[in-house]
Amino acid sequence: MRLTFTVQRFNPETDLHPHLEDYRLDIGRGATVLEALIRIKHELDGSLSLRYSCRSAICGSCAMKINGSEKLACRTSIRKEIEHHGRMDIEPLPNLPVIKDLVVDMSSFWHKITAVAPWLRSSLHPVQRYGPSGQLRLVPTHYQFFNVDACIMCGACVAACTTHEVSKGFLGPAALAKADRFLSDPREPEPAKLHRLRILERANGMWDCTRCNMCVQVCPKDVKPMEAIIRLRRGSIQRGLTSTEGARHVTGFIEIIERSGRLNEAVMPLKVIGANPVGMLRVIPLGLSMLLKGKVPSPFGHMLPGIEQVRAIFAAFRRRKRPVHP
After folding, report:
1. According to the model, what pLDDT value does residue 302 have?
2. Mutual angle of helices 173-183 and 190-200, in 10-degree steps
């Protein structure tokens, strides 16, 4: 079949802005987008730049935006794209600087991976680190890392991340998922895990994720980075790291539900801000607006029916959970 491929082009040496170019190509229905791009480069336009290597969805090099979604070109079927979208629009990954055409600069991505210390932190006690036999301890065969170790570093999740789009300092889904892999590793001592979480709870860390779920949707390896971020948050709260606004949002939400059985939107901002006078002044206009729109429950309202059953759920949970001690 003969198709038109619309490719975003940009050469920083000659172009002021990116532009689109159309390429007409006869190609089989079973071909992938990467195969089409390689043929375009070899047969139609040798100046087209793209990055690829394994062609088997292992290296992650050929990640790009195809018909509005971040995908690996080597595993994206042209037939399915035409059936679903009726077109072939190809662009470089967003949220990353373009070097040329479909090639983006991954430097910031790798710096963020390095920033989370993607390695096991050693114990201060050699026996704990190596075991009595002097050999490095292996992970038990039954142990699972929730598939976060399947990440191929393609950058698709960062390109799709809505937080990264507006805040370039955000560590991003891939780096945080990598951190969760080491937090979950039974070989890393608890003090090292606590130190890791204290770093990740800072600005641009795990609490900046807005849970938009885009990283989960575009990940070609089903890593589910957002779920990894939630595990990091849960682990930090279990270890008593509750001073950040993000952590106070979670603990405050739980306290309000346990006490009254429903969310009190007027109290929730106060739980998040804590003892911060500047923050209090910042939310006063919000509180007045909520009051005028009937979003503030009456303090004299009746207790919700079934509140004792709600509290019983929380009590049962506390009896079952096992706190983590640093």
Report:
1. 65
2. 160
Q: What is the pLDDT of residue 46?
A: 96
Long-range pairs for 14-22 at CB < 8 Å and ≥24 separation? 18/98, 21/45
Is pLDDT at 135 greater than 70 in this prediction?
no
Report helix, strand or coil for 108: helix
What pLDDT is recorded for position 1? 84
d(CA 194, CA 182) in angstroms, rounded, equals: 12
Q: Where in the chain is the domain with CATH 1.10.1060.10?
A: 107-238
**Distance separating alpha carbons of residues 283 and 266, to the nearest angstrom:** 10
Superfamily of domain 2-104: Beta-grasp domain (3.10.20.30)
- pTM score of the predicted model: 0.86
Provide the 8-state DSSP code for 116: T
User: What's the CA gap between 20 and 14, in Å, rounded?
Assistant: 15
pLDDT tens for each residue of 209-253:
999 999 999 999 999 999 999 999 999 999 999 999 999 999 999
d(CA 225, CA 219): 8
Q: Which fold has domain 107-238?
A: Fumarate Reductase Iron-sulfur Protein; Chain B, domain 2 (1.10.1060)
- What one-character-per-residue DSSP string does 174-237 give? HHHHHHHHHHT-TTS-HHHHHHHHHHHTSTTSGGG-----HHHHH-TT---HHHHHHHHHHHHH
The dihedral built from the CA positions of residue 67, 6, 15 and 49, taken in this order, carries a sign that is positive
Q: According to CATH, where is 3.10.20.30 located in the chain?
A: 2-104
Burial class of residue 289 in the structure, from the number of CB atoms within 10 Å of its CB (0-12 exposed, 13-18 middle, 19+ buried): exposed
Q: Is the pLDDT confidence value at 133 over 60?
A: no
